[in-house]
Design a protein that fits this description.
The longest helix has 14 residues. Helix 1 packs parallel to helix 3, helix 1 packs antiparallel against helix 5 and helix 3 runs antiparallel to helix 4. 68% of the residues lie in helices and 0% in strands. It is mainly α. The protein is globular, with a radius of gyration of 11 Å.
């Protein structure tokens, strides 16, 4: 069963996959939940801000190097949120 946070985070992933970085970022930065931090990390990876991305990855179980393709990573996150 999806929690309200999972629903919001799934929306952030959808925004990110559709190229709506700002909308996705607004949602991801509202929570300190590990999944939100992971999404936040991927968004900064997409943005090309490696140091900020690594900062957010440090708050998750994931690593910057785990997924070379951010879209593949976002789809993996979406499956976990489903």
């Amino acid at each position: 069963m999806n929690t309200e946070l999972n629903i919001q985070l799934a929306q952030a992933v959808t925004f990110a996959l559709n190229g709506e970085w700002d909308q996705a970022h607004k949602i991801a930065q509202e929570s300190n939940d590990a999944m939100a931090c992971w999404i936040h990390a991927v968004l900064h990876k997409i943005e090309g801000d490696e140091s900020n991305s690594r900062y957010w990855y440090a708050r998750t179980q994931a690593k910057y190097e785990d997924y070379p393709d951010a879209n593949v990573e976002l789809r993996a996150i979406a499956k976990l949120l489903d």
